[in-house]
Amino acid sequence: MGDNRKVRVVVGGVFDILHVGHVHFLKMAKELGDELIVIVAHDETVKRRKGRPPINPAEDRAELLKSIRYVDDVVIGEPGEISIDLIKRLKPDVIALGPDQDFSCEELKKRLRKEGINAEVIRLPYLYKSDRAKTSKIIQRIIETFCE
User: Fold this and answer.
1) Of 46, 81, 114, 117, which is least packed with CB atoms within 10 Å of its CB?
2) Whole-model pTM?
3) Domain residue limits at 86
4) Is 20 annotated as a binding residue?
5) 2 in any annotated domain
């Protein structure tokens, strides 16, 4: 009898002001397995890492992500860095990092192995290189268009 276990892929990110780059990233991540779970950064984490609060609260970002066909489930992360406890609960087979996320695949892999998590960690490439696919550039265009 064959193994019917689904391959679970986990990604994480802020996903504030959803754009086409996010959609391409989620599509690529979904192609790595059968089930895609997205961890949305907690508002406190966004504020600490980006130096500003998110435009949209985590609950709204999660709801928007749930509406994307590639996404099977969304959870809101805990404040702070990557939660090993959350990763353990999600039981990923693959953790896919975005091209602009500043985590080292090797360092993350080592940290996970120490905790008994054997997920593959990979970095997905940019598929859509454009200022239209960067939240900071979108915010800048909004300010230039409507505030000057």
Assistant:
1) 114
2) 0.88
3) 8-146
4) yes
5) no
